[in-house]
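About this split. The held-out portion is used to measure sequence recovery: a designer receives only the structure tokens and must propose an amino acid at every position. Recovery is the fraction of positions where the proposal matches the reference. Here is one held-out target exactly as it appears in the evaluation file.
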């Protein structure tokens, strides 16, 4: 994938997504000793960055073939984005969700006119249920992360960050299957080649050993994590996203416990007045922890990607 793919995605989706704001905090700058910027994708349409990849993938498919409908599997945010993108493109949609998905996310998907099919909360169950929908209804699959069009769509976020923040040294973004971080890396480095991109993850994902070894060290079959950051439960990076991140991302990975994630989420609500979901708090947790010292002192200007704000208000983690 190249930066030109990101530019094509910008042309496809720019009328349907918003340029989300970047905010700063004097308090955070004093706590960290750095200049910290927060990219507020929690304010994006559908409540997360996911609309970028879903919409780019769907428009790309429409350009090349006739579609009878689309389907996907998701822990919530991608499903919300695909349902909304299908509504914009006047396409039938069916979303496969783990039966543990928060009810408000289910309602949000249905509000776009999509059908919901539930499955067991495992990667294999999601894949099998979605394949059944594809076969029975002749629908086209929109992957959550592991597809070049999805990655290119997320890459528009990296480009946007670099255009909004002058002289940026580094970006910290949460990672699950890697679609967001791979896209941000290509989009950001297409503007400034030496900008650093760091991954932030929940405990148990164990990405750093694989990045340092240059090979996939995760156990098979693929596992799902148990984490308060329910949007980051995919343990392995994808087959498409892995080579991009192996080549372009920094080898240091910030791994946060549930306690650190909850504390950072609460800090963001209270001090920054921003409603973010647990997944978006992982990068905040990284800069508030002593792990920030793993980034060289010369790296002063850092952007934290607040990936989403879809929160179950009836079940807050604190």
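Reference sequence for scoring:
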């Amino acid at each position: 994938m190249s930066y030109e793919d990101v530019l094509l995605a910008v042309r496809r989706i720019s009328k349907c997504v918003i340029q989300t704001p970047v905010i700063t905090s004097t308090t955070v700058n004093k706590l960290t000793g750095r200049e910290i910027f927060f990219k507020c994708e929690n304010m994006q349409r559908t409540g997360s960055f996911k609309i970028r990849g879903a919409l780019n993938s769907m428009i790309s498919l429409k350009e090349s073939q006739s579609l009878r409908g689309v389907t996907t599997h998701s822990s919530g945010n991608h499903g919300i984005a695909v349902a909304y993108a299908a509504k914009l493109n006047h396409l039938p949609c069916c979303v496969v969700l783990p039966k543990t998905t928060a009810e408000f996310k289910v309602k949000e998907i249905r509000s776009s006119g999509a059908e919901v099919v539930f499955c067991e909360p495992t990667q294999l169950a999601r894949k099998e249920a979605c394949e059944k929908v594809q076969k029975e209804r002749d629908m086209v699959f929109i992957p959550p992360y592991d597809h070049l069009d999805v990655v290119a769509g997320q890459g528009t976020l990296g480009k946007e960050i670099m255009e909004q923040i002058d002289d940026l040294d580094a970006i910290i973004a949460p990672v699950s299957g890697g679609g967001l971080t791979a896209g941000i890396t290509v989009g950001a480095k297409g503007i400034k080649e030496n900008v650093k991109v760091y991954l932030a993850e929940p405990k148990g994902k164990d990405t750093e050993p694989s990045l340092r070894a240059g090979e996939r060290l995760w156990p098979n079959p693929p596992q799902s994590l148990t984490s308060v950051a329910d949007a980051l439960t995919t343990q392995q990076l994808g087959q498409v996203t892995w080579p991009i991140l192996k080549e372009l991302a920094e080898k240091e990975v910030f791994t946060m416990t549930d306690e650190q994630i909850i504390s950072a989420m609460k800090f963001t609500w209270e001090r920054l007045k921003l409603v973010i979901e647990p997944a978006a708090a992982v990068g905040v947790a990284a800069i508030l922890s002593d792990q920030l010292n793993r980034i060289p002192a010369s790296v002063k200007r850092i952007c934290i990607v607040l990936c989403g704000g879809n929160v179950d208000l009836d079940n807050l983690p604190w």
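Annotator remark: The chain has twelve helices and ten strands.
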